[in-house]
Amino acid sequence: KALQQEIDEAKASTLEEVDELRIKYISKKGKINQLFSDFKNVPNEQKKEVGKAINDLKNFTLDKINNLRDSFSKSDSGTDGLDLTRPGEPVKLGTRHPLALVKNEIINIFGRLGFAVAEGPEIEDDWHVFSALNFPPEHPARDMQDTFFIEKDPDILLRTHTSSVQIRVMEQKEPPIRAIFPGRVFRNEAISARSHCIFHQVEGLYVDENVSFADLKQTLLYFAKELFGEETQIRLRPSYFPFTEPSAEMDVSCSICGGEGCNVCKYTGWLEILGCGMVDPNVLEACNIDSRKYTGFAFGMGIERIAMLRYGIKDIRYFFENDIRFLKQFESAI
Ligand code: PHE
Predict the structure, then answer these.
(1) Is residue 213 within 8 Å of 290, Cβ to Cβ?
(2) Does ligand 1 have an atom closer than 6 angstroms to the CB of 303?
(3) Predicted confidence band at 80 (pLDDT cuts at 50, 70, 90)?
(4) Does 189 carry a binding-site annotation?
(5) Phi then psi for 219, rounded to 5 degrees?
(6) SS in 3 state form for 285-323?
(7) Is residue 161 in contact with ligand 1, taking CB distance under 6 Å?
(8) What DSSP string runs through 87-135?
(9) What pLDDT score does 201 carry?
(10) Model confidence band, residue 225 (pLDDT cutoffs 50, 70, 90)
(11) ipTM score for this prediction
C-alpha cells in the first residue's frame, strides 16, 4: 500500500527521469520484483490475495510510467519539425507613393514658412468652384467639356481645382490666413501620357493686412530653391485667372539641364510649374472679407507635374495604375 502511494506520487520532468522510475520499480532488481521474490514466504492461504495485489501494483506502475512517457512525447509533438531557433521571415516594407512623397515635401517646405494644411470636399457646388472665384456665368471652364457634373440646377460637380478650398477657408476664418490645401481634382480630359482626368494640386493662400506681390515672389522663390535646389531661379510671366489680379505663371530654371537646354524644358531652360496672383478683391468680398483692409496672394500647382520632373517619370498614367514594379522604386515607408 505504501509502495503504491509512493509510485502514485512519483513525478518525472524528463524522459530520462521516467526511465529511472521504470528501473527503480519494475526492472529485474526493482522494488516490485523484490515483492515477487518475497512471495514465497507468504502463507499459502494468503498467496491468492497477495499475488493479485502485487500484480495489480505492477500493472498500476506500468500504466503510470506509460502515461508519463506519453505525456512527454505528446508535448514533444507540439514542436515536432519546428526549429524554434530558426531566424524569422523578414517583414517586407511597403513604399510611399511618389505623389505622397512630393506632397509631403511641399507641405514641409511651406510648413517652415508658417503655412498650415487644410482640406475641402472633392464633390463641390458651383459657388465654391466657380462663382465665388469670380468666374463669369458663361466661362468655358463650366462647360460640360471640362467639368464632371453630378447634378444640374443647382449644380453639383467634381472640383476642377483646389481653389475651391480658398473659398471654404475664407468663409470660415478671419484673416490672417496662411495655409496650403493639397487635394485631388477632376477634369473631363482625354487620358494621355501628359494629362489625366484625375490629378492632384496644392493650393496656397495668404491673406492679411499689407500682403504684397513682393511677398508672393519671395515665398515662391524660397519654395523653388527648397524643392529644386539652391541654384534654382524663378521667372514670373503675366497670365490670367478670374480669381487673381494681377496673375502670373511661374517657371523654374530647368533642374535637369541647369538652364542649358534639354528636351524636358524644350530647349528653353525653363519649366512652368504653377499659377499664382494677388487674390481678386471680388473674391475677398464674396467671402465677407473687407478688401479695403486686407490683401492676399494665392498659388496653385499640379503635384504630378512636379513628381514627373523630380523622378524623371515620362507618363502620367503610371501614377494611377498601381503597378508594383513602378511603386517599388520609391522610398520605403519607414
Ligand atoms: N486654380 C488654378 C489652376 O487650376 C491655379 C491657381 C491657383 C492660379 C491660385 C492662381 C492662383 O490652374
Answers:
(1) no
(2) no
(3) low
(4) no
(5) -60, -45
(6) HHCCCCCCCCEEEEEEEEHHHHHHHHHCCCCCCHHHHCC
(7) yes
(8) PPPPPPP-B--HHHHHHHHHHHHHHHTT-EE----SEEEHHHHTGGGT-
(9) 98
(10) very high
(11) 0.98
Which residues does residue 261 pair with via DSSP β-bridges, in sequence order? none
Amino acid at 24: K
Q: What percent of the chain has pLDDT over 70?
A: 96
Nearest to 187 by CA among 152, 141, 151, 156: 141
The number of the ligand 1 atom at minimal distance from the alpha carbon of 163 is 1
Ligand 1: centre distance to CA 166 (Å): 11
Residue nearest to atom 4 of ligand 1 (CA): 161
Instruction: Output the CA 300–ligand 1 centroid distance in Å.
Output: 4
The three grid cell numbers given for residue 296, joined into one nine-digit string: 492676399
| 35 Cα: distance to centroid of ligand 1 (angstroms) | 104
Residue type, 276: C
Question: Count H helices, E strands: the chain?
Answer: 12, 10
- Mean per-residue pLDDT over the chain, rounded: 90
Q: Report if pTM > 0.80.
A: no
Q: What is the pLDDT of residues 167-186, one digit of tens each?
A: 999 999 999 999 999 999 99
For the chain, the maximum distance between any two Cα atoms, rounded to a whole number of angstroms, is 128
